[in-house]
Every structure is written in structure tokens, then in C-alpha cells.
Amino acid sequence: MNQKSPLRVAIAGIGGFGSSHHAVFSGLEAQGRVRVVATCDPAQDRLGEICARHRFSERGVRVYAGFEEMMAAHAGQLDLGVVATPPHCHAGMHQALVEAGIPCYLEKPPTLDPEEFERMVEVESHAASPTNVGFCFVHDHARLALKQRILDGEFGALQRSTFLGLVQRTPGYFQRSRWAARLLLDGKLLLDSCLGNAMSHYVNNLLFFSGLDSLAERARPLSASCELYRANEIEGTDTIFVSGVLRNGVEFRMAASHACPSATQLTEEVMVFDRATIIIRGGTGGVIQWGDRAPEEAPLSTPALSSCMDEYLAFLGGRLPRPPQTLEECRGFVEMNALFYLASGPGIHNVPDRARSRNPETQAVVITGIEEAGRTFLAQGTFPSQAGHSWGRRGGAASVEALPDLLSRIQHCGTQR
Questions:
Q1: Mean pLDDT by 10 residues, the chain (417 residues)
Q2: DSSP bridge partners of 381
Q3: Which of 10, 114, 246, 370 could disulfide-link 219, Cβ–Cβ 3.0 to 4.6 Å?
């Protein structure tokens, strides 16, 4: 698809992560590559400071309260639509853009409801131009080169892929909106969680590197065992321990929590091969540990919304053959997220008061021994319930065959603290 510059852009969303999109597009506009003509947010009346910061009036950006109103006012006048709204709004906005023949940049996660995802894929099959889903990292040329080395067999067979993520969130994070940390919203599956949203990039990374047939392939899960916990006063889960097998036979383990002691984010991706182990810390600190020679540094680029958007604009301009991540390539991610709940046995366990404390500076809730529990789990596959943690409770197991039972499962997954 070849587009003339500047592209006429409408952005759904002003507050939250929408503000980050406006910052990126303001820079692109200064370069003469785009012109943001409209934006919308139902909370526009309360977002005056953000509107002023992004100079909507001076730049001629028209502001609307509703998406449909914005689309109607600019019918036939848009070259790109950006959906930077809460996940439960994505499907309808994506459909409207596709039906209007407008390319769509859709923020992650596209949805966390597998049935809704399949409906979105059906809508996408009629798109004039493929949608890009905003998972960062996977467009990074250094990561693509590293995956090519995996596909070439340089490290041997991939045995296990793991992720540890400790990303602290304060009480305000869970109170920022009516959908935050919810399992259901108005009867609709939402499933907002640490791995479903804030650290979803890393789940996607694990599936990206574990897709062993091509650069574009993302692996899909087959079965999992899982323990879910909540330490905060929320409906959903803020702490997840999950292990299982992907459809190609690769083992996976993930441990993630928002109830951790340090405000400094700790993320670690580890891939264990026959001949080497690849460790990526903090998203960019890559090292290849060889069994028979000195470690090899493998620096990776810092993931950023701006570079992800650059890649999609390059595709729209005909300079790249495909978007960084198509909608259909998110299927494994959506399935994996659903498996967390299907495999959780009794549901979400409340962490008892005796095993909870608060960070005195941030007031974030902290689970006692959470980092030790995470590292033990990734190294040995030992769940908190098996490792002697006072807060540990047994979960369960499930396979993807149980996906049709997800909604009924969620309705019995546990109650708010």
C-alpha cells in the first residue's frame, strides 16, 4: 500500500496511553510525515491539561467525545486510524476502521477474549490493509537477527523459554479506571492482569522466539499448569505462575507480579538450548552463554512506541513488505492468556495479610518472598505451593481444548478480596 505524505490520522484515546501516542504523532507531524486531524475520548472534558500539552488547538486537531462522532465527521478523509483505548473498546473500533477502508494501528492487547478475537480476525480478513497490533520488541532488527540465528540452528534445539517479570504497581494503578484489574466488565470478558496487559510484550516475545518455523511465526500454547494470586484489593490477578508446553513441544515457564518490593522493574527472558542459553535482562541486555566458550554479548534496541509506529508507517508507505505484528499473529498470545485462568484450579487465591506488606515509599502491596518464589519457579519448575511459601496455594491444569469454557470458568474464578 503506497500512501502520500502527510498521512491524515485520527487517534482514538487522549488519556492514559493515548497521551503517549499523541506525543509520538506530534513529533511525526513536525517531520511532515503525518497530520493528526482528529481525536476522541469520552473523558475529554476532564483532560484539558493533556489537550493543552499536545497543543490540539494550535495544531488544528478536532476533539470529539465519541468515536462514532469522530468517524462520521471525517468520513472519507482519513489515511490511518490509531486505537489507543482500553482493550474492551478495541473490537468495535477496529471493525469500524476496517469497514471504512482505513488502515488500523491497534494497541495491545487486541482483546483477551478468544471468541471476540476470532470475530476480529474474520473482520480483518476483509481489510484493505493489514492491521498492526502494538506489541513492541518484535520489530527490533537485532531481535529479528537473533531469531534468525535460532532458526538456523546455531544454538541447537530450543528446550525451554522462560520469563520473570516483577513490575511494581501502586494502588492508584488499580484504581485508574473502572476496567483496571477486572475479569469481567458489564458481563464481557476483560481479564486485565500483569501478563495480560502491562507485561504482555514479554509474553508475546516468548511466543515470538519460540515460533521455530519462520521469522514471522509466533508459537501457540498446548497445555499449562497455573497458580493465580491477588495481593491487592482487586477482582483479577496481580501475580501469575504458569508452566506448560507449546504446540511445537517447547516447554515454557512464566512468573510475574505487580506485588513486588522494588519500584525498579525486573524483567528477565531466558531461552535454554542444547548448546547455549540466551538471557535478556531489562529488555535490552542480551547475552549468549555458551557451554564451551566465552559468553557473547547480544545487545538489543530499546523498544519504543515511536519505532514501532515508524515500522508500520514504512509498511503503509510501501517500504516494508509487512507490518511488525498482524492481528492473526496474536492468536497464541490470546490463547495463552486464557489458559492462565482455565488452568488455575480453584481460581485466584487471596494472599493472606500475614504474607503482605507495603513499600513505605510507594505504598505498593508486596508479597513476602515474591522474587525468590519467581526465581525458584523458573529454575526448577517448583510452584509457590510446592516451595513452602506460606501464601502458596495449589492451582490446576488445562489444555487449549478447554477454551470454549473460558467465560463460565471466569464466572467462578474467585471473588474480589
A1: 78 96 97 97 91 96 97 98 97 98 98 98 98 95 96 98 98 95 94 97 98 97 98 97 98 98 95 98 93 92 90 96 97 98 96 97 97 98 98 98 94 65
A2: none
A3: 246
Enter the pTM of the model. 0.96
- Say how far residue 70 (Cα) sits from the centre of its chain: 27
Domain boundaries, the chain: 7-133, 141-300+327-410
Contact call for residues 323 and 131 (beta carbons, < 8 A): yes
Query: Tell me, what amino acid is at 264?
Result: T
Which is it for strands 158-166 and 266-273: parallel, antiparallel or unpaired? antiparallel
Helix pair angle (90-99, 114-124), 10° resolution: 10
CATH architecture, domain 141-300+327-410: 2-Layer Sandwich (3.30)
Looking at the structure, give the CATH architecture of the domain made up of residues 7-133: 3-Layer(aba) Sandwich (3.40)
Pairing of strands 356-358, 365-367: antiparallel
Nearest to 156 by CA among 288, 300, 332: 288
Residues 6+ apart with CB under 8 A from 415: 235
Give residue 415's pLDDT. Answer: 58
Residue closest to 6 by CA, chosen among 40, 23, 31, 38: 31
Rounded distance, CA 310 to CA 92, Å? 25
The answer, yes or no, to whether the previous bond of 404 is cis (omega within 30 of 0) is: no
Q: Are 68 and 75 in contact (CB under 8 A)?
A: no
Q: What is the DSSP letter of 100?
A: T
Amino acid (one-letter) located at 197: N
Sequential DSSP letters for 30-46: HTTSEEEEEEE-TTGGG
Q: Which amino acid would we find at residue 309?
A: M
Q: Distance between CA 385 and CA 61 in Å, rounded?
A: 54
